[in-house]
C-alpha cells in the first residue's frame, strides 16, 4: 500500500466522491498503532478492538472539526486515549470494582493470556503498569512503547511538557519500586 500524507488523506476524505476510500485508507494507515496503544491501556483484546473501532467512528463523525494543528496520527491518538481512559473509568463504575479488585482482574487476565514462550520480564512489567495511576501508565506507554516525544504526547494528552516529564519520571520510579520489591 502506498503511504499517503495527512494532506492527501484529508483531500480524499473531504471530497464526497472519495470520502469512503479516504476513511478506509485512514483506518489502514493508523489502525495498528491506535490498537497498540489502546491494548496497552485496557489489556483485553475485545475491549481494545471495541475502543479502536469507537475511535475511528468518532474520527469519521468529527473529521470536519480537525483543524490540522497536529498530525492525523496525534489527533487519532488523542481520541483513542480519551476513549481508553473513559472506558476504564466506566468499567470500574459499572462493576463497582474497587481499584485493587479491578487490578487483580487484569493481572489474572495477563497470567492467562501470556504463553510460556513470551518473555517473563514483559509480563512483570505489564503487571507493574497495572499498579500505577492510569494517566501515568498512559504517559509511560506513549513514551516507552511508542517512542513519542514529549511534544507529541503533550498534543495527545493536552498536558504541559513539564507535567509529562514529571509523570513519566514518577511512573518509572514506581515501576522500578514495584519490580524491585517483588
TrEMBL record:
GO biological process: DNA-templated transcription initiation
Domain RNA polymerase sigma factor 70 region 4 type positions: 123-175
Keyword annotations of the record: DNA-binding, DNA-directed RNA polymerase, Sigma factor, Transcription, Transcription regulation
InterPro entries: RNA_pol_sigma-70-like, RNA_pol_sigma-70_dom, RNA_pol_sigma70_ECF_CS, RNA_pol_sigma70_r2, RNA_pol_sigma70_r4_t2, RNA_pol_sigma_r2, RNA_pol_sigma_r3/r4-like, WH-like_DNA-bd_sf
Gene3D superfamilies listed in its UniProt record: 1.10.1740.10, Winged helix-like DNA-binding domain superfamily/Winged helix DNA-binding domain (1.10.10.10)
GO annotation, cellular component aspect: DNA-directed RNA polymerase complex
Keyword Transcription regulation: yes
Superkingdom, taxonomy of origin: Bacteria
Keyword hit for Transport: no
RNA polymerase sigma-70 region domain span: 26-93
PROSITE patterns listed in its UniProt record: SIGMA70_ECF
GO molecular function: DNA binding; sigma factor activity
Family assignment from sequence similarity: Belongs to the sigma-70 factor family. ECF subfamily.
PANTHER family assigned to the protein according to its UniProt record, in alphabetical order: RNA POLYMERASE ECF-TYPE SIGMA FACTO, RNA POLYMERASE SIGMA FACTOR
Protein name listed in UniProt: RNA polymerase sigma factor
Lineage: Bacteria, Pseudomonadati, Bacteroidota, Cytophagia, Cytophagales
